[in-house]
Amino acid sequence: MLTKMALIPVKTVVTERQELLRKPEWMKIKLPADSTRIQGIKAAMRKNGLHSVCEEASCPNLSECFNHGTATFMILGAICTRRCPFCDVAPRPPDRARRQRAGKAGANHRRHGAALRGDHLG
């Protein structure tokens, strides 16, 4: 029995191997050799049932922020009302006990974040 894929002709073109261009040094992120601070921030977030924009949105700079001891909490939990195409945040109903857990977390460097749109500015 033939499948649809078996009926599609495949053309193979042999090309010369080209050298890949490398990223410039200023564009490269240097990961810390010791990830204990990053793991500590993640553990504190899990322990308190908190969600960070960094993790939920799959931010490529997560290790940089967490290594500096900062995390941006999502005030509505793991949801966001905006649906940015580059973001991985899944919509879910708000968590009512979120405020109390965020207050108890007591991180030294704490930022609470919510996306702002131009139509909300005065």
Automatic annotation (TrEMBL):
One of its GO terms (molecular function) is 4 iron, 4 sulfur cluster binding. The keyword Transferase applies. Residues 13-59 form the Lipoyl synthase N-terminal domain. Its EC number is 2.8.1.8. Its cofactor is [4Fe-4S] cluster. Keywords: 4Fe-4S, Iron, Iron-sulfur, Metal-binding, Transferase. The keyword Lyase does not apply. Coiled coil: none annotated. InterPro entries: LIAS_N, Lipoyl_synth, rSAM_sf. Transmembrane segments: none annotated. This is Lipoyl synthase. The lineage of its organism: Bacteria, Pseudomonadati, Pseudomonadota, Gammaproteobacteria, Enterobacterales. The gene is lipA_1.
